[in-house]
Amino acid sequence: MLDPRKLHLLRELSRRGTIAAVAEAAAFTPSAVSQQLSALEREAGVPLLQRTGRTVTLTPAGRLLVEHAQAVLEQLERASAALAAVRGGPSGPLRVGAFPTAARVLLPPALATLAAAHPGLVPMISEIDPADVSAALRAGELDVALVHEYDFVPPVTDDALETEPLFAEPMYLTDRPAIAAAAGDPWIAGTPGTLCHTMTIRACQAAGFEPDVRHHIDDFDTVLSFAAAGQGVALVPRLAALSPPSGVRLTPLPLHRRTLAAFRRGYGEHPAIQAAIAAFHEALAGLSL
């Protein structure tokens, strides 16, 4: 019988690439992960890993088992959700990840709704960059997370996760009538590697130039403060520009950011996840977006 916990480690190895990365995510030692994967190979009866020095790759049999592992783990999530529904209303810890603007604007009214409707739920919020959400959900560090995607940036797909669209919001340019008009200006963008940074670079490239990024800032309140001080132009979403500083002019653009709720595949029927998503929608209905 194949052990689902070991299958989870094999799936994580296929995604993270190294034993050390899997160990860090699973809060195990690398030695413990290696032992678990060796035990899985014995259970499977075929080699699953190819070891060359310190490098470990999956064999064809290993890759085949990962494909089946995803289906097994998804069914276990469905079983967990079904059992939770039988037990009654949602209760217990609910670990929610969110990017900063959603945490500041959307989560407070959503949490108030949850507290009133489901007092047995205990939400625990963590700010997290959307780029890190997939790994955190797969590792069980989060139950549900608010993520976003931008025009010009293809969404990151993960077959271990499902998403539910929540809303779309326009993007604004600070203090210029169009992106092309800011070709000679200093720019404020997110940290390299974030979706916000990639969106800014590609939007400028689509307008025919490479932006001169002077400042790398992830918090949009700070971005707007820098723009108000004349330190550069920036692209900001509507959710971050509900109360801009005085002196900052915002030009709406035909670009959008879309926010989604993400959760492990098969887990969407869990009463706590359904309650959270319902609260997100109710909070959005009360916002002027």
General description of the model:
The structure is a single chain. This protein is an alpha/beta fold and 289 residues long. It has 2 domains: 4-84, Arc Repressor Mutant, subunit A (Orthogonal Bundle); 89-289, D-Maltodextrin-Binding Protein, domain 2, CATH 3.40.190.290. The protein has helices spanning 4-16, 19-26, 30-44, 60-87, 100-105, 107-117, 133-138, 195-206, 220-228, 271-285; strands at 49-52, 55-58, 92-98, 121-127, 144-150, 161-174, 186-189, 212-216, 235-237, 250-264. The protein has a 6-stranded mixed β-sheet. It has a two-stranded antiparallel sheet with strand order 1-2. It has a two-stranded parallel ribbon with strand order 7-8. The protein is globular and about 65 Å long. The mean pLDDT is 88.
Instruction: Provide the CATH topology of the largest domain.
Output: D-Maltodextrin-Binding Protein, domain 2
CATH class of the largest domain: Alpha Beta
H-E string: HHHEEHEHHEHEEEHEHEEH
Mean pLDDT: 88
Number of domains: 2
**Into which percentage range does the β-strand content fall?**
15-25%
Itemize the secondary structure elements and their pairings:
Elements: H1 4-16, H2 19-26, H3 30-44, E1 49-52, E2 55-58, H4 60-87, E3 92-98, H5 100-105, H6 107-117, E4 121-127, H7 133-138, E5 144-150, E6 161-174, E7 186-189, H8 195-206, E8 212-216, H9 220-228, E9 235-237, E10 250-264, H10 271-285
Parallel strand pairs: 3-4, 3-5, 7-8
Antiparallel strand pairs: 1-2, 5-10, 6-9, 6-10
Helix pairs in contact: 1-2, 1-3, 1-4, 2-3, 6-10
Protein name: LysR substrate-binding domain-containing protein
Keywords: DNA-binding, Transcription, Transcription regulation
Organism: Nonomuraea ferruginea
